[in-house]
Amino acid sequence: MKRSSLHTPEYAAIVALLRDLRLEAGLSQAEVAERIDRPQTWLSAVEVGGRGLDLLQVRELAAVYGLDFPTFAVRLEERIKAQPYRPPRRRRVDAGTSKA
User: Fold this and answer.
1) Which residue numbers in the chain have pLDDT < 70?
2) CB-hemisphere CA count at 13 Å for 58?
3) What crossing angle do the helices spanning 55-64 and 69-82 adopt, rounded to 10°?
4) Distance CA 64, CA 83 (A)
5) Which of 9, 45, 52, 100 shows a CA-CA span of 20 to 30 A to 39?
C-alpha cells in the first residue's frame, strides 16, 4: 500500500507552520475560513493533520496570512531542515502471511 503524505514529518511541518502563521497574523480559524469561503471545521481538520491540502490551497492560506508563496516555501524548508532526521520506514511484513 502506498504511504500517504499525510503521515510524514514533512506534512506535519506544513500544517504546524500554517497554524503558527495564522496565530502570528492574529486570526481565528473562523476568520480565515470566512476569507477562503470554507467552513471553520475544514480549517480545523487541516490544522490537526486530518485533511490533506493541495498546493493551491497552501498558497491561498499563505496569502491570507500575509506571505507570498516563495516566502512560505523558504520558511517551510527551514522548519523541515530543523527537524531531526528520520530514516524512511521499511515495509511491514505481516507475521501471519507465509509464502509456500
Assistant:
1) 1-4, 85-100
2) 17
3) 100
4) 26
5) 9
What cell does 35 get? Answer: 476569507
Summarised one tens digit per residue, pLDDT across range 19-42 is 999 999 999 999 999 999 999 999
**Cell 532526521, residue located:** 85
C-alpha cell at 67: 506571505
pLDDT of residue 1: 44
Contact yes or no for 25/18 (Cβ under 8 A): no
CB 64 within 8 A of CB 36: yes
Q: Which residue has the cell 523558504?
A: 74
Distance CA 92, CA 12 (A): 22
Cβ atoms of residues 65 and 75 within 8 Å: no
Closest CA to 15 of 69, 58, 59: 58
> What kind of fold does domain 5-82 have according to CATH?
434 Repressor (Amino-terminal Domain) (1.10.260)
Give CA–CA dist 29/45, Å, rounded.
11
Alpha-carbon distance of 61 to 35, in angstroms, equals: 9
